[in-house]
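Thanks for the sequence, V.! I ran Extracellular solute-binding protein family 3 right away. Repeating your input here for the record:
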Amino acid sequence: MIKKLFTMTSSSQMLVAMFIGFGVGIFFGESVGWLSTVGNAVILLMQMTVLPYILVSLIGGIGKLKKSTATLIFSRAGLIMLLLWLLALVTIALMPLSFPFVESASFFSTSSIEPATAIDYFKLYIPSNPFESMAAGYVPAMVVFSIAMGLALIGMEGEHKQQILTFMHTSGEIFSRITRGLVKVLPIGIFAMSASAAGTMGVDEFASMQVYLISYFVLCLLLTFWILPWIVSSLTPITFHQALSIAKAGIVTAFATGNIFIVIPVIIEECKQIMAEHNQLTEDGATLIEILVPIAFTFPNIGKLTVILFVFFAGWFNGTPIDITAIPSLSISGLLSLFGSVYVAIPFMLDLVHLPSDLFQLFVMSGFITGKFNSIAAVMNLFTLTLLTAALFHGCLKLSPPRLIKMGLGIAAGTAITIVLLRVGMGMFIHSPEITSGVIANMQVADKVPTTVERQFPQLGKTPTHPIADLQTIRARGTLRVGYIPSNVPFSYYNNAGQLVGFDSAMASKLAEDLDLKIEFIPFQKDKLAESLKAGFFDIAMSGLAMDIEQMDKLSYAEPVLELNLAIATRDHMVNRFKSTERILSLEEMTIAYVEHSDIIEEAKRKYTNLNFVKIPGYKNFFRQKSDKYDAVVISAQAGSAWTLFFPGYGIAILENSVRYPVAYAVAQNNQSLLNYVNNWQKLRKVDGHQDAIYNYWMLGQGAIEEKPRWSVIRDVLHWVD
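Predicted structure:
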């Protein structure tokens, strides 16, 4: 058995390693999660030779061309190659339209407010310092530098040029030998990453991977069996059936072996034969085909470009789809980075669009399934490029308007039908996860003090008033009275059990516990806060109160307990419209609701004269509206994220110029003893970690969902471990 494994081809070993890894992960579960370290180490080793190999292979490959051959290839084949790349990139960018709509939401994440690092396109594409470009991993810049050196070598003659070419060729052989040696340990990395993923990945994550695999397979099949042969049949004398027939042997071989290189002789002979059958092959034409195929092989093919779809999937999977404005940059950078290895290109592209780097493990895990399919697209790409270039060389490439229209309509119709069928098909079987509201609606405050919750609002002039109680009076009374705003998620709201819960409810309970008092919660309306405190309805207001300049001479705020980030909550499909000032200014007939922040809203009214701002009593009036009376609401990112758990059809847009504002607790004016105690108490609970623990639970959702061990055979079937 072991001997058979060592005699297998490398691609077979990788497939076996992947399936064994899955088995080990399912059997042992989370106990093999540490294997991801081994997998990452192997992948990093595989990346070791990539950048140097790009450098020497491009310089040597282009530099050895004759000037006439280079002119022919870069002027004719180069143009066709660019157009095919463009078509492939557009098709790949359209494929995410087939991803099913999954209505989901999540707790607030601090990463959502971190400023995105601006991309330095000059450094990314222009190798002003090639050594810096290589050290920083700017693959596009390295490709530009290598092509420039290769082109410069073409115009040189003499022994020195030959020495450089020999050095480049020898270096390329060295790097190839290193890579071939490392490929022998790659199955170990595949095994380790597959075992770790299968042992730690949740069922929902596995289900989501179906979206990528299905859409990727369909993309490769669409390119291989429709778009590329349709282009050949539309613009050359070769029929659609003939285009598929001549590619059949190469496609089958590439799919079975995962190796495109061994198919090159087949592609050359089949292209020469089909051109000869149509009496369109001269001696120079045959030479062109023999030169073109090996050179084209060294450039990124359409099969390789299809891996860019993973980055689009990663955005969908992460809940942050790639913005349409980022697609051109992603496509160009992805194309240039794919002059090297996908193991460098994918992490580079994930970083470019600010997606978590650990998503790369999903790509590696699926790479040896998807690799079979991108091989067939690569083979058909080489056939198409060669046949179109040969037809152009022999003057039989038909570019008349009727043929171009036929080609365009065929490609558009095939792509549209495929995307629609795929969207409908996946939409029927892949559904939104049934979570969100059930999680936040069942969260509880760990009550350690007797608690009473009043639901009736006290009314000024009707409800009996009380003298303002200082700390000594409150202790003597034995009860701390806390004012709260109902339905003020996630600060104070009722859960499914009818209990008052939330961040500030938990903080208030902790304050009462430290004072060794009972606690009574009393509701209030925010516009009557100062009057309610003065009337003695409650001692302190703790309910996500934004510090208000207009209220500061009527009550006393404690030190800020939190700093929140101002954001916009709106329907999911409208979120991107609020992510930049330019887009907001272009909006028309939009009604923006707000509950607080009157001073900020006044500034916004002057800046965004195209928007209509309307004040509403509470956030529930926006999220529970029956009609689309309000298009968006101004809210904190923290509170907005919590509301979207109840209403997952909404999303949060962090404003371009991040605005922060303080939230504090309020006491009656001149209640200095209580104010001093609360300030000092807050400092203590911040330092000792209690406030952070409460924040992490209510704002970030840490611990809100009970973490159960991943199902495994060893635990759940054999019961060998607890």
